[in-house]
Hints:
Blueprint lengths: L2 H142 L11
Amino acid sequence: MSPDILATILSAVGVxxxxxxxxxxxITRFDSRLDAGLSGLEQRLxxxxxxxxxxxxxxxxRLxxxxxxxxSGLEQRLxxxxxALDVRLSDxxxxxxTGLEQRLxxxxxALDxxxxxxxxxxSDEVGGLRGDVTELKVxxxxxxxxxxxxxxxxx
Length: 155
């Protein structure tokens, strides 16, 4: 091999090594910048995500408080309406019971008086019929006469 070829080959190898070194340096530099950019981006995204989560938690707390307020207000209003309805219906039922009791008491008293009168009249009639039956028994007994002793036959 001649020295010219050897010098050319060594020059080519040197240029290739220099190019590979430059390319490696560019890639290393690009990689470090990319890492720095990505870590900054990751930090910004993490901060935004944390902010959104905090906002969501705050919104959740506010909505829970609002829902609880609506529930308690609704429960109080419904309880008040139910209590008022209970009072009104209790008054109506008491009024109906009182009126019904008075009407039934009046009817029972009237029936009691009528039945007492009828029972007294029937008792008088039965008393009169007892006397008639007794007189009838006496009359029948007189018609039949005294009871005869049985006849004995001797012999």
